[in-house]
From TrEMBL:
Keywords: Membrane, Transmembrane, Transmembrane helix
InterPro entries the record matches: DUF983
Annotated protein name in UniProt: DUF983 domain-containing protein
Domain of life: Bacteria
Protein's organism: Pseudooceanicola lipolyticus
Transmembrane portions of the chain: 65-84, 91-110
Amino acid sequence: MTDQTMIHAPVTEQRPVMPALTRGWQRKCPSCGNGRLLKGYLKVNDTCPVCQQELHHHRADDGPAYLTILIVGHLMAPALLLVFETFRPEPLTLFTIFTVGCAALSLYLLPRLKGAIVGYQWARQLHGFGKPA
């Protein structure tokens, strides 16, 4: 096969994953790290207000919710068992403490995990993030 008959794929720049994940976790634009990624609690901006990076083609879908449930469950279930076996609190006290804890941890993690997933998609150039500008 000669060079004339070979089809070459377009060369795309490599984007570092860890900075994009960190910026997403901080709810900042994965490209510049300065603009806000979210305009509400979970609504992703269409474009970055600072660098104008298009963000509308992200596909986070159910990923952040799944990861939130996974993390909260794996943290709170052993803690529940430990507290119950060690201190033997009243059932209503135990229920109240762990309900508030689960809700608070879920509300904290959900937007951060969504930002991290959008950052990962941007870094790996998935779902339209790899289109040339």
